[in-house]
Amino acid sequence: MELTLIYTIVGFGLAGISVISNDAIQVIGVFLESKKKWFRWYTLAASASLVMIVTITYGWWQYNGDISFGRLTRIPYREIQWYHCAAPLILLLLTRIGVPVSTTFLVLSAFASTVVIEAMLIKSAAGYAVAAVVAYICWLGISKLVNEKFDEITTQWKISFWRNSVWISSGYLWATWLMHDIANIAVYLPRQLDITLLLIVLVYFTIILFYVFYIRGGKIQNVIISKTGTRFARSATIINTIYALVLWYFKDLNNLPLSTTWIFVGLLTGRELAISSTNKDYKFKYIFPLVTADFLKMIFGLSVSIAIVLVIHYVIIPNQIGL
């Protein structure tokens, strides 16, 4: 077996488990938190897997075998080398200690040119700002009408409505996220997959999803739990809907990948700031450490990504050429 094939298998395997463990839980974490009281973990995992299978299969069919939904147009396929496996390995380690870094920068930085990375950074920063502003404006109005801790729903039809809305909004968000971040795993694969490779990918992703739900999201789930009211159906639905709409907007903007983690952190930041502005019992001094910690983790992940780019382009590749 050639070394490049081994590196491809290892890189794809590490990317799959690290991307889904880190980024996916930021998408389905609200769904998991709001539904775990009512459903078994494997029921939730099965529903998430079904949406994933349908979405990826649709992308594979729509884009002639390309499961990345065209996100890798500016990052051509190249033979996988050992250093391409380092990025998802670092990501996997960071995930284990609960750091919500951007998988887009951390993984794709090993493949993309500096020009593409710069464009991705600009798009992601814009996504962070848009998500924060939209969330802040929305929750200024919402927080005056909805307070999950003190305004509990008691009418049966309202309870059913909001519980069902979580399923719908979570499925929509999950599918939209996959259209962005599946590129972070597909970058290790040929740009056109045959039916056999597609089935292998789907089976592997399903196994990972079931594992993530089995461990209840792992340490990354703490990012969700620490935010106000995320376990409530109404808040979960609103978070999912706004997040999905922002992702959909940037999906149609251009075919560049962007960091969904940055959008997620921006969304939660805007939401927490709005709640602190309207709720006298939830002061800014309480949320400042949370917002700052998430932002610093985001910057830390970006710094690691830049370091990977510099090492690959200015140390490893020149030495290989010299050899």
Note the topology.
Blueprint: H1 3-35, H2 41-62, H3 86-96, H4 103-108, H5 114-145, H6 156-181, H7 183-186, H8 195-214, H9 221-225, H10 233-253, H11 260-278, H12 284-322
Helix pairs in contact: 1-3, 1-6, 1-8, 1-10, 2-6, 2-8, 5-10, 5-11, 6-10, 10-11, 11-12
Question: How would you sum up this structure, described in words?
Answer:
Helix 5 runs antiparallel to helix 10 and helix 6 (156-181) packs parallel to helix 10. It is built from twelve helices and no strands. The protein has helices at residues 3-35, 41-62, 86-96, 103-108, 114-145, 156-181, 183-186, 195-214, 221-225, 233-253, 260-278, 284-322. It is globular. The protein has one domain (3-322). The model has no long low-confidence stretch (mean pLDDT 78). With 323 residues, the chain is mainly alpha-helical.
Can you write the helix and strand succession as a string? HHHHHHHHHHHH
How far from one another are the termini? 23 Å
Oligomer: single chain
Radius of gyration: 20 Å
Number of helices: 12
> Which structural class fits the helix and strand makeup?
mainly alpha
What's the total number of strands?
A: 0
How can the largest sheet be summarized?
none
How many domains? The number is: 1
The helix fraction, in percent, is: over 70%
Beta-strand percentage range: under 5%
Shape: globular
Features:
globular, single chain, 12 helices, 74% helix, mainly alpha
Brief overview:
The protein is mainly α.
